[in-house]
Amino acid sequence: MEVADRNNREGMKAWLNPGRYGWERVSYWLQRLTGVGLLAYFVGHIYETSSLTQGPDAWAAMLELTQTPMGHLILLLIIGMSAYHSANGIRLIFTHGGKGLGKPGRPDYPYDAVSLNYRQKSGIWIALILAATAMLYGASVLFGGE
Amino acid sequence: MTMLRESQIMKIHYITGIAALFVVAVHILMRLIIPFSLSLEYENVIANYHNIPYVLLLESILVLIAIHGFNGLRIILLELRQSKAWEDSVTILTIVAMMAVIAYGTRTIIVANGSGF
Amino acid sequence: MTEQIIEKIEKIEKKHEKKETVRSSIVLKVYRANRRAGESVHYNSIEVPVQRWTTVLDALLYAKAYKDKSIGIRYSCRMASCGSCGMKINGIPRLACYTKVSELEGSTITVEPLANFPHIRDLVTDFSQFFSHHRDVRPYIQNDEADIKDRAKLSEFMQSPEDLDKFLQFSYCIKCGLCYSACPTVATDTKFPGPQALSQAYRYFIDNRDAAGKERENIVDDRHGIWRCHFAGSCSSVCPKGVDPALGIQLLRGHLLGFSKNEKKVADLRERSKRD
Questions:
Q1: Which chains pack against A, by 3+ Cβ pairs within 8 A?
Q2: Nearest CA of chain C to the CA of A129: how many Å?
Q3: Scanning every residue of chain C, which has its alpha carbon at the shortest distance from the alpha carbon of B79?
Q4: What's the CATH fold of domain A21-100+111-142?
Q5: A132 in C contact zone (CB under 8 Å)
Q6: What are the boundaries of each domain within chain A?
Q7: Given an 8 Å threshold on Cβ–Cβ distance, is C233 in contact with A115?
Q8: H or E segment and range at residue C89
Q9: Domains contained in chain C, CATH given
C-alpha cells in the first residue's frame, strides 16, 4: 500500500542552511563551500599559469587580468578559504578517527552529546581565526603596497 | 583497473590533504622570499621552473591537489543523486578531470622548464 | 551523590530560566497535507491555551480534541520513551512530548512532519526505509559460541561494566528518527543508512559479545556508507536520549581507519558452560 510520497528529502536546502544545529553543521557547510571554491580556483590557476608557455607577452597579459584590485580580493578570499579548509581539515581527520571526541558513558539529563564538546569545537573557531589572520596578512601584502 | 574500496579512497583523500598542506605552504611562501613586487616578474617565475626541487614541488602539488579536490567533488556529486548511470559517470568524469588537469599542469612545468615539446 | 545531582539540575534550570517564556496561549501553525485525498500542502493556525508545563504534544492534542479532529499525529507514550512523536518544531526535529511550549520563542509554533521521511498525512511520516536501513546493519549479536538453541546449556558471555559502558549509551536509541531528519547527508543521499543505523552498527561492533566485527566493517565500508558522514553533528545535537550517534559513527570510522586497532576482544563464555 503505497500512500507515502516517494521522496520528502530536504535536498540541497539542507546543505545550504547551516544555522539550525550548531557549530559543527556550520563547519561542514564551510568545508564544502571552501572545498568547491578552492577546486575552482585550482583549475583556474593551472590554466592562468599555463600562459608562461606562450612567452613573456602572454604572461604579462595574464598578469594584467589578475593583478587588479578585484583579482587581489579574490586571492584574499582564496587565502582565507585555504586556511580554513586546511585547519578544519586537520580537525576533521582527528575527529573522523574518533580522536578528541570523548568516551561513551552513561548519558544523564540534559543529555548533552559528548562528541559536541569544546575541545573539537574550538578547532572550528581556531580555523576561522587562522583564516581571518591569513586574510589580514594577505591584505597587508596585496594592498599594502611596497 | 581494480576498484578501490571506499575506505582506501578516503585514506588517500586524508593523506593527500595533509601532504598538500605542506607543499602548498611552501609554494605560497615562495612569493615572500624575494621582494613581493618582483615575485611575479616573468624572469623570476621562469627561474623557479629551472630549479629542480621546486619543479618537483609543483608537480607534487598538482598531483596531490588534483586527487584531493576531484575526489572531494566526486563525493559531493555522489551524494546528490544515486542512479547507477550517474554514479558511473561521476566516477569516470572525476578521474578524467583529475588526469587532464595533471597532464595540462605537467605540460606547463615541462615547457617552462625548457625541455618542452 | 544525590546532592551533586540536585546541584547539577538546579544549575541547568537556572541556565534555562531566562529562556522560559510565559504565555497563556499560543498559535499552533500545523502543516496539513493529504495527497491521497487530493489535499495540497497548507498550514492551519490554531489558537491553543497553554500553561507553564504544556508540551507541544499537549497543545496538538488539545487542538485535535477541541478545534480540528482531523489533524493526523503519531504519538504514544508521551514521555520520550517510544520515539513516535518526532516532528519538526520551529524548523528543528524534536519530540513533541519532550518539548515544552515555554522553551520555544515567539507566540506562533510551527509544527511540520519530519524531513527526509516519505510523507503520509499531516504530521505523520513513513518509517519503512528508516527501519530497513537499520535492518541492513544486522542489529543483533552474531556469535557462534552463543548456544541459545540448546537451553540446557544456556550460558553467558563475560562482560565487565567497562565493556558495557563502551556501547550502553548507543543502546538507548528509541528510533525516533530525529537524527535521520537532521542529517545533511540523508537529505540528499537515498542510499546513506543514516546516523541511527550507523550508530547501531557501532553498538553491535563494539559489544564484546559480538564476533562479527569484520563483516560489520564490510557492510558500512561502502561508497554510500559510513564514509558519507562528515561529522556535521546535527544528529547528536537533536538526539533526545543522549545517544550521541555522531560519536558512535566516528568511533566506528576510527576502527576502519586503523586509529583504534586492538581495542576489542570478543568475550569468553563463562567457565561453567564450557565444562558441560
A1: B, C
A2: 20
A3: C189
A4: 3 helical TM bundles of succinate and fumarate reductases (1.20.1300)
A5: no
A6: 21-100+111-142
A7: yes
A8: strand C86-89
A9: 25-125 (3.10.20.30), 128-275 (1.10.1060.10)
Distances in Å between the Cα of B45 and the Cα atoms of B52, B56, B112 are: 13, 15, 9
Contact status, residue C60 vs residue C112, Cβ threshold 8 Å? no
For the residues of A43-78, what is the DSSP string, one character each? Answer: HHHHHHHGGGGG-HHHHHHHHHHHSSHHHHHHHHHH
pLDDT in tens, A90-122: 999 999 999 989 899 999 888 889 999 999 999
d(CA C253, CA C193): 14
Q: Report the distance separating Cα B23 and Cα A48, nearest Å.
A: 20
What nine digits make up the cell of C112?
511540520
Task: Report how far residue C259's alpha carbon sits from residue C244's, in angstroms, rounded to the nearest whole number.
Answer: 20
For testing contact with chain A, the best of C231, C243, C249, C257 (most A CBs within 10 A): C231
Closest CA to B10 of C230, C152, C260: C230
C-alpha distances (whole Å) from A99 to each of A24, B15, C253, C257 are 15, 17, 11, 12
The pLDDT profile of chain C, 276 residues, written as one tens digit per residue, is: 778 878 887 887 776 665 666 788 999 999 999 988 888 899 999 999 999 999 999 999 999 999 999 999 999 999 999 999 999 999 999 999 999 999 998 899 999 999 999 999 999 999 999 999 999 999 999 988 776 676 666 678 889 999 999 999 999 999 999 999 999 999 999 999 999 999 999 999 999 999 999 999 999 999 999 999 999 999 999 999 999 999 999 999 999 998 876 667 787 777 654 555
Q: Which amino acid is at C122?
A: D
Residue A20 in contact with partner chain C when CB distance is under 8 A: yes
For residue C77, give the C-alpha cell. Answer: 507514550
The rounded distance, in Å, linking the Cα atoms of C241 and A109 is 9
CB contact under 8 A, B108 and A86: no
Residue C69 carries which side chain, given as an amino acid letter? K
In this structure, how many other beta carbons lie within 10 angstroms of the beta carbon of residue B48? Answer: 18
Q: CB A4: neighbour CB atoms within 10 A?
A: 20
Instruction: Locate A35 and state its grid cell.
Output: 572545498
Instruction: Note the helical H segments in chain A.
Output: 12-16, 23-49, 56-66, 69-96, 118-142
- Half-sphere exposure of residue B2: CA atoms within 13 angstroms, side-chain side: 4
Please name the residues between 15 and 74 in chain B that touch chain C, using a CB distance below 8 Å. none
Model confidence, pTM:
0.91
Per CB-CB distance under 8 Å, the chain B contacts of C223 are 6, 78, 87
> What domains sit in chain B, N to C, each tagged with a CATH number?
6-113 (1.20.1300)
